[in-house]
Amino acid sequence: MKKDRILLDHGSGGRMANRLIAEMMLPLFDNPMLSRLDDGASFDIPDGRMAFSTDSYVVDPLFFPGGNIGDLAINGTVNDIAMCGALPLYLSAGLIIEEGFPMQDLEAILRSMSISAEKAGVKIVTGDTKVVPRGAADKIFINTSGIGQIPEGVNVSGENARPGDKIIVSGTIGDHGITILHQREGLSFDAQMKSDSAPLNHLVARMLNITKNIHVLRDPTRGGVATALNEIAAKSNVGIRIRESDIPVKKNVAGFCSILGLDPLFVANEGKLIAFVEKRHADEVLRAVKEDSCGRDARIIGEVVSLHCGKVIMETAIGGERIVNMLTGEQLPRIC
Amino acid sequence: MKKDRILLDHGSGGRMANRLIAEMMLPLFDNPMLSRLDDGASFDIPDGRMAFSTDSYVVDPLFFPGGNIGDLAINGTVNDIAMCGALPLYLSAGLIIEEGFPMQDLEAILRSMSISAEKAGVKIVTGDTKVVPRGAADKIFINTSGIGQIPEGVNVSGENARPGDKIIVSGTIGDHGITILHQREGLSFDAQMKSDSAPLNHLVARMLNITKNIHVLRDPTRGGVATALNEIAAKSNVGIRIRESDIPVKKNVAGFCSILGLDPLFVANEGKLIAFVEKRHADEVLRAVKEDSCGRDARIIGEVVSLHCGKVIMETAIGGERIVNMLTGEQLPRIC
């Protein structure tokens, strides 16, 4: 029975830790950089601009429709790198595991990480495992950090939105957050409701293939689309106008939001992006997005204006206008 | 009073999270890469070989003589990169904070991180903050990941030990682990007992300045010197001989170990390195190490042999010989 659970020894850096790495981790993530098991990985990098990002994942529950903490941790950091306009290359994985955590769950999570890394075309080249005594952490937390290469001529930043830019959202919003909430509250099973957790780097590559004139990319995770748009409006010192009727929301997500009094604009996504694209390229980029499996429901939801700088204004479905603020308070702790 | 503690809102990605970043983090870590607050940092990298490493820090207690979790998190990852023979450049910081954590402690930890990064000459360029509900994590965990540049001609790896190599240890061993244990058990204050937490990258640069023929570098953290040597013996498929009488151990650390039945060879260090250096350069490298403030007590503790491959043998102080194994079991959970 003891062998079925993580023990403090597995985080000791000693014999048990070495065995866990050799028997479970290396077979799943094997690559020459990782398998040297040095204090860090080393690799050749071409001259140029790099992106570097980090995220810790503390999602609860660990397993949910459409994914688990493992693929979320890979996709999340792959996406953060992709949102810098970069091609993600190498990831690190840092695990903090609670003593007693089922070995079988750990293996399922690591397997998901391996599959997601494969899908995204990235390699996990370095890692760390800490085990803390029972009660010092809730089951498992995963940090992934990653680096990627920014192609020549690409200059994507939250500071780069310009009046006239069209705002594309790559699909329906709120799917991840509402799925987690649904699962956490033990609500009735809805086969249609699942997380959108997905790697967006191939989609970004497709977009940059059309034009380098993509000014901003952002994946609206915690805080949702509303918070991301507010941050961009502030950082670029521009106004943003969006149209409620153009924002894609799945029927069941919209229904669930309205019952609970949540606004899907503030709900987390894990496989969606917002892009600010120079007007003359917007339609062509949108077409390219829609050809990608992650972008079928993409829409242009609004544009950048030189009025009301720093503010996001929405034309409501009933013809009015309202200011969309940043998320205040916390709707859903441990959403990712 | 509420303002004195971390709330779930601080991890929401929304307004409170933005304020925490703007008011506490940016002033401490300000640099143009971080302050853009994009999903990742971007920077130019020269052509060549890079090192990439990650570590999560879960040390308990958070504050201890000689340091706290903040400088440990910076020094630890700086050292892991330096142990690849690389010049550390950029770090990420991922915080997982328990709801209710005192804001004042967070600020003290972040301030230590800032000072340590400055000392090591690295920049924190990207970060992430998650807040989990009370009880879901014990106070604060910190992940740091980092990248560095490997100078032309440097090729350091645990696989590269060669018969004849001299083994240098950069100073007294066991200081960090014994300090934490001492503190945790509430033992009487000993002014001489403090963690050796320190950045070793400047020391490594000094060594590589003497010769590129440094085959292995390792910082013996969890599992101590014994485990590190065993890993190297196995990976390089060589035998290792060390002499007990040459291993530097502080008197108070040795005394404390003997009372508790601990072997300092298995106790964690956070500011020491082991180097395997080609014989003809060993004395000169040792001299250079001793000139560094982190290497004053450095010694040659043994050498690599072509006998008993994969094993570490110690000539004991009383003239016998014994096999030194890897750490089995866990002496001290949450040591780093």
> Helix coverage percent of residues of chain A?
25-40%
Structural class of chain A: alpha+beta
CATH topology of the largest domain in chain A: Phosphoribosyl-aminoimidazole Synthetase, Chain A, domain 2
Report the CATH superfamily of the largest domain in chain A. PurM-like C-terminal domain
Number of domains of chain A: 2
**Beta-strand content estimate of chain A:** 25-35%
Q: Please count the beta strands of chain A (DSSP E, at least 2 residues each).
A: 14
Instruction: Name the quaternary structure.
Output: homodimer
Flag low-confidence runs of chain A.
none
Major sheet strand order of chain A: 9-11-8-12-10-13-14
| Span between termini of chain A | 31 Å
Structure, briefly:
The structure is a homodimer of 336-residue chains. By secondary structure, chain A is an alpha+beta fold.
